[in-house]
Design a protein that fits this description.
Length: 316
């Protein structure tokens, strides 16, 4: 009886802890100042502050491609007062690091995936191809002659193209730039031939005919480009790539706090005004349970580790 009473006290104490949380300000660490993760973090922080009656402060730790942000949260107390706006850069592509300071699966308590955004495979119009199969055939007939621009070594656009090279069995040359604007400019001049980039950021060039889109990278067609096939539809089975953002806590955070945060964050992500602002950035809502987000991260890490090994990408 004494053991049963102890268990009941523990259960009610845990539940009470979850209900009383939070009692002080919360810090949400974002991996990129001014980027998509920062934008999502600020939207969520504003709404969460109003809901909790406690300030939620966005702390940008943009250095080292998200590594500093991830490390900050992984090593924080497991009390629910330090959260991470995680991304493919801070978690999914951790295999680019020779000695990463944290494990993307074991060192976090995933709360919910928030938003994900497909990209577009875009070419310069001078390239004599109008679909993915023609691009693959042309690249195979001209190995090493085509180049692609990216936002930098290890960036999502770099990895997305290496994934394309791996699945398509082609060789294209990587030319990294300091960011998406520089990479897009190089493509517009015709000095670069291919890019996998945010469809929203290149939409005006696609509509004017200055660039040509061959496919998008999600599991379904994009609302902005309904006539453009996905990579899978275009003949590249298994190709599915997203830039994504989601919220995590340090490993060991109590299930009661994780559940409370999941409930609140899913509700906030789905508020009409929040949803509209995220969709305007080219994203789509992808909220779900902590278990679903855990599995998503596990699969994303495994996919990118395989690409990194196949492409023999140097680890930093």
């Amino acid at each position: 009886m004494r053991a049963v009473a102890f268990c009941l006290v523990a259960v009610f104490a845990g539940a009470a802890g979850g209900q009383s949380y939070p009692t002080k300000p919360i810090r949400m660490v974002a991996a990129e100042a001014g980027g998509g993760g920062d934008f999502a973090a600020r939207l969520i922080a504003h709404e969460l502050s109003a809901r909790f009656g406690q300030q939620v402060i966005v702390d940008n730790r943009g250095a080292a491609a998200g590594l500093i942000a991830g490390q900050t949260v992984a090593k924080a107390p497991s009390d629910g007062y330090t959260l991470l706006m995680g991304s493919v850069g801070s978690l999914g592509t951790i295999g680019l690091r020779k000695n990463p300071p944290y494990d993307p699966v074991k060192d976090f308590a995933p709360i919910t995936l928030g938003v994900r955004a497909a990209s577009a495979l875009v070419v310069h119009p001078s390239l004599p191809v109008t679909n993915v199969k023609q691009l693959i055939a042309f690249a195979r007939a001209h190995p090493g002659e085509l180049n692609y621009a990216s936002s930098g070594v290890g960036s999502p656009s770099h990895l997305a193209m290496e994934f394309f090279n791996t699945l398509a069995g082609v060789q294209t040359v990587h030319i990294p730039f300091k960011g998406p604007a520089e990479a897009t400019t190089e493509l517009l001049t015709g000095r670069s031939h291919i890019i996998i980039q945010s469809a929203v950021s290149t939409l005006a060039y696609l509509q004017s005919g200055r660039l040509r889109v061959l496919a998008t990278t999600g599991s379904k067609r994009m609302t902005e480009l309904p006539a453009v096939p996905t990579m899978i539809e275009a003949g590249l089975p298994g190709y599915e790539v997203y830039v994504w953002y989601g919220v995590l806590a340090p490993a060991g955070t109590s299930p009661e706090i994780v559940t409370r945060l999941n409930h609140e964050l899913v509700r906030i992500f789905n508020l009409p005004d929040v949803k509209a602002k995220l969709l305007a950035q080219g994203g789509e809502l992808a909220t779900g349970s902590p278990a679903e987000f855990t599995e998503f991260i596990r699969n994303d890490v495994a996919k990118w580790n395989k690409v990194i090994r196949a492409a023999k990408m140097e680890q930093e």
